[in-house]
Amino acid sequence: MHAAGMIRGQQGLQHFDQPPPNMRQPEEVLIRVKEVGLDGTDHGIVSRGTPDIMEDADRMVLGHEVVGVVQQVGAEVTSLSPGDAVALTVRRGCGICHPCLHNQSDMCMTGLFTERGIHQLDGFLTEYVVDQEQYAVRIPPELTRLAVFTEPLSIVEKAIDQIRIIQSRLPWTCPHPEHSFQSREWGGCKTALVVGAGPLGLLGAALIRLSTARTFVADILPDDSARARLVRKLGAHYIDARGKAAEDIIAACDTQAAGLNLILEASGAAETAVRLIPHMSRSSIYVMTGIPRGELAMQLDAGELVRQVVRYNQVVVGSVNSNRTHFEKALGDLGEVNSRFDGLLNDMITHRFSLDDCHKAFELTASGRIKSIIEVDPWD
After folding, report:
1. What gap in Å lies between CA 279 and CA 277, rounded to an integer?
2. SS3 198
């Protein structure tokens, strides 16, 4: 069975063969992989040559954004049948802490989790995989061609959940009951900044736009770039952040007296992320989802930053990974995102490759791609 990933001691993406997986437990399902989406994590693992391979293994299959079709189910599987399309969650819990024992491993308390295609477990850039029923989320038939976006959309679904939960501490800030945090239009009367116009940033901006918030998206690409055009397709405002300091980005948001209520960081640009904090508005919420690589030394007035966060009632929160609930929310929003914004998800896919040619996806520059899809077994 063909697979692609990293081999210990070797640089770059490698192709190799491995035995087909076998179902060993009654709650397991056998899945034929259809499509795998690639993101910055995959590209980073390959470019840095730093795969997190399990100690007793010499290689790891990459890929964590997957859509597949169930081929066989175990005797105790009740929610899935052969022929069902499914998306698989990524993180597998530690089996110790309360969140992991309740299928919320994205909030693992021990740090002893594993992740398929990222941290010690094989991913999905192969022909067949076996996993437990609890990690397979059934995809409605009408969404199968969009479902490769389920995992990345689930990441921003969780981030938006954090925003709405935190926002609930401020019930008096908006006079319109239809803008309460329980409402679909919770973003009304609010202004948001999304940092990064990659797949996560675009998907985050799409969910924020669904909430009716006035939205700005900043990235270090020219105003006529493909990503900038997709931002405008969302009805959001694009900011070319090249050469701009944090205060210039904030000023470009043109928030006037209302201030900037929400910031969603989805770029992993550590210096920009940190330097935005001193420019947050009163009672604003800042959710960071990007994970920087490498080290960064910089100078900040720590006393002023702490005084501001305390005196202005600000919240800065990190949000990583997602759980089954967020996958289900993503599947609930996929169709609306694509239809409301005139085929946005289709436009985000810039490249498609076969499994045999998937190494070519890792030769693309960041500016030359938005979303690459590996078609392991193309849909008919």
Report:
1. 5
2. coil
Task: Give the gyration radius of the chain's Cα atoms.
Answer: 21
Q: Which domains are present in the chain?
A: 2-138+349-375 (3.90.180.10), 153-318 (3.40.50.720)
CA–CA dist 61, 7 (Å, integer)? 9
Tell me the per-residue pLDDT of 304-346, one tens digit each, with 9 for 90 and over.
889 999 999 999 999 999 999 999 999 999 999 999 999 999 9
- Answer yes or no: are the C-beta atoms of 246 and 272 closer than 8 Å: yes
Structure-token match 């920009």, residue found:
272
The CA-atom distances, in angstroms, between 314 and each of 78, 157, 189, 338 are: 45, 21, 18, 33
Q: Cβ distance 27 to 74 under 8 Å? A: yes
How remote is the C-alpha of 321 from its chain's centroid?
A: 7
- The answer to whether the beta carbons of residues 89 and 74 sit under 8 Å apart is no
Q: Which residue has the tokens 């116009």?
A: 197
Bridge partners of residue 316, in order along the sequence? 286
Tens of pLDDT, residues 262-311: 999 999 888 888 889 988 888 899 999 988 877 778 888 889 889 999 99
Q: Rounded CA gap, 93 and 110, in Å? A: 9
8-state DSSP, 328: H
Q: What is the Cα–Cα distance from 215 to 187, expressed in whole angstroms? A: 10
Predicted TM-score (pTM) above 0.90: yes
